[in-house]
Amino acid sequence: MNLRRTWAIFRKEFIHIRRDPISLLQVILLPVVLLLLYGYALTFDIKDVTVAVYDQERSQLSEDFIKHFRATQYFKLVRYVTSYDELKDLITGRKVQAGVMIPYDFSWSFQTGQTAVVQALVDGTDSNTANIVLGYVQIVATAYNEKLLVQRLQTKGPARVAAPVDTQVRFWFNESLESRNYIVPGLIAVIMTVVGALLTALTVVRELERGSMEGLMATPLKKTELLLGKLGPYFIIGMLDMAIVMALGKFLFDVPLRGSVLLLIFLSALFLIATLGQGLLISVSAENQLQAFQMAMLTTFLPAFLLSGFVFSIYLMPLPLQIFSYLVPARYVVTISKGIYLKGVGLKVLWPSALMLAAAASFFVLLAIRKFEKKIR
Q1: Domain count across the chain
Q2: Torsion angle of alpha carbons 36, 300, 278, 350, nearest 10°?
Q3: Whole-structure pTM value
Q4: Residue 80 — pLDDT band, cuts 50, 70, 90?
Q5: E-assigned strands of the chain?
């Protein structure tokens, strides 16, 4: 590949973008508009919340309390753990959505007339879901309290009316349950999809409609040089939009960024390359700009908005959609951005998502180059 010829196409594409200031302004203002518009996500009923239990006591009374979680349709007990660290790792790795820790003195507190304390650990990355899970935990605890209060009244009389179980819930990662704390990281996927796919989808087909592609095909340009040169300006614009989102998230909405900024930028760049390649593949396949725009909306923007976990929790979707979401690159960058922003995790946890993004970037770019034919249709 000749870098001088690639650079020439890069400059040419940048000149086209600069001569269309309205479109360029829209791309730059897009992060601001989206951040102001999307404040809160919709709330849905949640069932089968995955729960891990750390029962330090393992008594009949503690097992009876756990049975109340099994008896409801809202919880799905998936694992017993033997340490607090194991419970923490399950929640950090998104293998369970909540954890219940029963202390070693659970039965003793109840039998001596004191209030037994049970800790519920809820993943607060998605504040709406966390609030609903909290409500379900409190419902289970209330039902169990009523059962034990009846037993106390029957054995010790009406004087003993203190609640025998007190549930103390601690939210991790998004302690204040602010929706903007997970909206801003998710917006990175949506904004980069718009820039990377919707705009790039028009690049090649626009040249064909205007007739300027004939002049390019008469040059010694190779198709790899042509396509990569066209991708360069949109990559820079996409990273600029990401910087705007990060700056507004920090200084306007005070969203915490607990992980590595460099890791977030690197992995987001991988996702941007994947969406650029996807848009380029659409552009070399479409017959006209309208068809390219429609294809980009259906295959990139809508899946990124609906199936990435940005607005709607993937765990609430029907199983076929959950399986299909694994084919959406935006799913992985949403997991990455929320993990780095709110949990401060690194590649030790995020490497599967990073690997999928690298595979998607290679697949779409190479497929677009292979499909592009340097001839007039």
Answers
A1: 2
A2: 70
A3: 0.71
A4: very high
A5: 49-55, 75-80, 98-102, 116-123, 165-172
Question: 145 and 204: one domain?
Answer: no
Distances from the Cα of 144 to the Cα of 60, 222, 255, 284, 341, angstroms: 14, 72, 38, 62, 37
Token pair of 271 as six digits: 């996702």
Rounded Cα distance between 70 and 79, Å, is: 12
Summarised one tens digit per residue, pLDDT across range 201-243 is 877 777 777 767 667 767 777 888 888 888 888 888 888 888 8
CA-CA distances (angstroms) from residue 132 to 122, 174, 240?
Answer: 10, 15, 36
Q: What is the extent of the structural domain holding 268?
A: 3-41+179-371
- Residue 361 binned pLDDT confidence (cut-offs 50, 70, 90): very high
In a domain, 376, yes or no: no
Nearest CA-CA partner of 283 in 375, 225, 208: 208
The continuous run of DSSP H or E covering 365 comes out as helix 347-371
3-state secondary structure of 88: helix
Are 26 and 132 in the same domain?
no
3-class DSSP state of 238 = helix
Q: Do residues 90 and 45 touch, judged by C-beta distance below 8 A? A: no
Same structural domain, 85 and 111: yes
Same domain, 211 and 291: yes
Q: What is the DSSP letter of 270?
A: H
User: What are phi and psi for residue 259, nearest 5 degrees?
Assistant: -100, -160
Spacing of C-alpha 283 from chain mean position: 27
The 10s digit of each residue's pLDDT in 137-160 is: 888 888 888 777 777 666 655 544
Secondary structure (DSSP) of 102-128: E-TTHHHHHHTTPPEEEEEEEE-SSHH
Residues 13 and 69 in one domain: no
Flag whether 183 is in a domain: yes
What does the pLDDT read at residue 135? 83
Residue 118 in tokens: 């049970």
Same domain membership, residue 201 and residue 163: no
| Residues 316 and 248 occupy one common structural domain | yes
